[in-house]
Amino acid sequence: MLTLADVPPALLLLFEAVDAAAVVIVWRSPHWTAGQKWSGLALALVLPGILRLVRNLGIPEDMTDRGVWRGVLIVATLALNVGGCVHLRRTRRR
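and the corresponding structure tokens:
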């Protein structure tokens, strides 16, 4: 299983740059109200980021079913990312 220590720092920096670009694009867009922007970004970026931290730092190595918990967190992260994007897509003004 790939952990945070195995990821090159340049790749982590790239992920952070993409997240920052997403925030700028959403906040500069006139298609959503401030509340819709907050909820969409929380679903698409903030909560998945917290789950990634839990997945990489919060699961003890001595757990017997560690792989199951990592799988659950990966699926939850993907679901939140997709949910945030779908929320922003559905609530945008044309």
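(Above: one complete record from the training split.) The radius of gyration is 15 Å.
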